[in-house]
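Running co-folding for uracil.
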Amino acid sequence: MSKLLDDMNALAAEISVCRDCMLHLTRDKSVPGEGNVRTKILFIGEGPGANENATGRPFVGQAGAFLNQLLAIAQVKRQQVFITNVVKCRPPSNRDPLPDELSACAKYLNRQIELINPLVIVTLGRFSMARYFPLQRISSIHGQGHWVNDRLIIPMFHPAAALHQPSLRSAIEHDFSLIPGYLEQAKERFEPKPEPETKPAEIPAEKTDESDKGPESGEAAQLSLF
Ligand code: URA
């Protein structure tokens, strides 16, 4: 197992015994998050609901089923990305997380972000959006990527909210369709496209030995999305 995965598992173990806020009193399972620790995209939701509290996995209820559809629109597979929440234990009756719960749990999310070091962060709902844009309204900035400390942050409506409001549903579907373009934009900022290959006619005849040949076409550098 890699050091990165070891560190992420150690963090999940720490979260499972955390008592830094009242939510530990009512949790069945903590929900640290799951997915590919080497992803370039991190999704941050709000907090576990009943299904997540029972299974220890994020976004496995109705909102999770809709998130899976949205990920398909974004052309990403769930197992290729990492999904977590701002609070790792269920707020009773799915109430909003309280300020002291958010601040007690922030250290875990901060460490996850440090470990994964994603290029793109998609926030789901207003609580994860508020980490980056505390004074903005989600209705004004949803779907708009902004660079914050060298990461492209894209605020999205929460899938649960969008499930119940048809106008939000089409907006969030459209916003997710923008993700592949944002990912390309983010990668180009740090991994500029290679210069176009020199045309063979421009290579002087005496310099065409093996070591001067460019990559075979099959070896052309491919930028991976994840
Ligand atoms: N499930 C989660 O894990 N997070 C949410 O924000 C909602 C449902």
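Result summary
The two ends are 19 Å apart (CA to CA).
The domain at 3-190 is CATH 3.40.470.10 (Uracil-DNA Glycosylase, subunit E).
Job closed.
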